[in-house]
Amino acid sequence: MATQAYYEVLLDYVKNSKPELGAEATQDNFNALLERVFGSKAPSIQTLAHGVYSRDVARPLVGMGEYSGKSAYIEKACALIEERVGVLFGAPTASQAAFDSWHKEACDGLCQLSNELPLVKPFCFGSAQKWLNMTLKNMLLTDQWGSAFEGIAKYLHCPVDSFIISAARDMELVIPPKAWSQWDSAEYYSFQEALRNAIGGESLIEWEMRIWPQYRA
User: Fold this and answer.
1) CA-CA-CA-CA dihedral for 73, 78, 84, 89, to nearest 10
2) Residues in CB range of 142: below 8 A, 6 or more apart
3) Which residues of the chain have pLDDT under 70?
4) Is the model's pTM score more than 0.90?
5) Which residues contact 174 (CB under 8 A, 6 or more apart)?
6) In the chain, what's the furthest Cα-to-Cα distance?
């Protein structure tokens, strides 16, 4: 995706998710907009992963409360994501199957780490995919890792949330009868495959960036 496309997606993000930034954000240049959305013109992978935790992952973690190890856990999880992304960028990804294998290993690692916590409900694959997929999406949005994503971006998954599920229902896809955060790996990968088949030649991440703002509005 070109920088202009990133800029337009970020503008949609501001309008729909960050109204507190104000309408003047639409007048900002790309780097200034990055700073307003992510807190930095050049956020690190761990910074982006922290942001995803706060926005998208923390709520399903019932039982964290005043857990004394919460901060250390978040640091470990974000470091794990950064390490796994390093593995992704360091080895050729020649197929969707190779990316999916990497993706599952990374999500399984997040689940294992998270389920060592004193949670009321298990940390499921659905929450792990959101954490990983949104970190990757935000990395794309910053346009810092453009060369590293060459040959990989077309394999990225669609982050699943309630808005994407609404879009999938409108496409008459089969949706697992539970909250997305509670999906297991089989349910998640079946959904990704069904979505990939339904949208045709467009990549999942490009489709998500185009469709999500429409359902979020």
Assistant:
1) -170
2) 6, 34, 38, 42, 43, 48
3) 1-31, 60-66, 119-120, 217
4) no
5) 194
6) 47
What is the per-residue pLDDT across 62-99, written as a single tens digit (0 to 9) for each?
666 667 788 898 999 999 999 999 999 998 777 999 99
Query: What are 17's two structure tokens?
Result: 């998710």
The pLDDT value recorded for residue 2 is 42
How many whole angstroms separate alpha carbon 113 and alpha carbon 110?
5
Question: Residue 213 corresponds to which tokens in the numbers above?
Answer: 């703002």
Q: What is the DSSP string of 53-99?
A: IIIIITTT-TT-TT-TTHHHHHHHHHHHHHHHHHHHHHS---SHHHH
The string of DSSP codes covering the chain is --HHHHHHHHHHHHHHH-GGG-GGGGGS-HHHHHHHHHSSSS--HHHHHHHHIIIIITTT-TT-TT-TTHHHHHHHHHHHHHHHHHHHHHS---SHHHHHHHHHHHHHHHHHHHTTS--SS---HHHHHHHHHHHHHHHHHHTSSHHHHTTTGGGPPPPP-HHHHHHHHHTT----SS-GGG--HHHHHHHHHHHHHHHTTS-HHHHHHHHHHHHH-
